[in-house]
Amino acid sequence: MDTNLQLRKRIRAGDHDAFGEIFDAYARSVYNHAFRLTGDWAQAEDIVSLTFLDAWRLRGKVDEEGGSLRPWLLGIATNVTRNTRRAARRHAAAVSRLPRDEVERDFADEVAARLDDTAELALVRTALATLRRAEREVLALCVWSGLDYRAAAEALGVPVGTVRSRLSRARAKLAKHLRSVELPSRDGQMKGDRGSAVGPLREGQR
User: Fold this and answer.
1) Long-range CB contacts (< 8 A, 24+ apart) of 51-60?
2) Using one digit for the tens of pLDDT, what is the confidence trace for 114-154?
């Protein structure tokens, strides 16, 4: 029997060892995907945990036929990210209504210390902010996580044609935005290739 089919069967049966295998194989991909959608390391780590908890809860819905489980996990991670953002907005709204008696700690320096290329990342995130959520999700899956159109469509639960059109719009918007800015190089000079920051960063497909 095909290895992927065996793994799917074991996942559906609630085999804990099988879940350990897919965690070892895909946790890094899920983390990278979550970070690209959120831009926050701590939040990405939380999303990894929630993704695999949801995967266990949804194990009975795994198709018996199919290839790698990576698109399925990235689809769950995308939904978890959406839900996390909604919860964060509700929390922020609740906190904003509370009286402020103390000065809040500024985490800017702590975050900046973890970045190798703060200025470049900021410009890229500004560019990504010009995209709609659905466009960012398709870009993250197809360009950065390296899924093909069909796998991305499976992850998002949309038709392949929708993935194609969203990705085309995302690329056009990013190209337009990046033509209007300059990205600093590591030596402080300006880069000639302005689109490199959002170019494909492929991961292993397994």
Assistant:
1) 51/76, 51/77, 51/80, 52/19, 52/23, 52/27, 54/79, 54/80, 55/19, 55/22, 56/14, 56/19, 59/11, 59/12, 59/14, 59/19, 60/12
2) 444 455 556 667 777 788 888 888 888 888 888 899 999 98
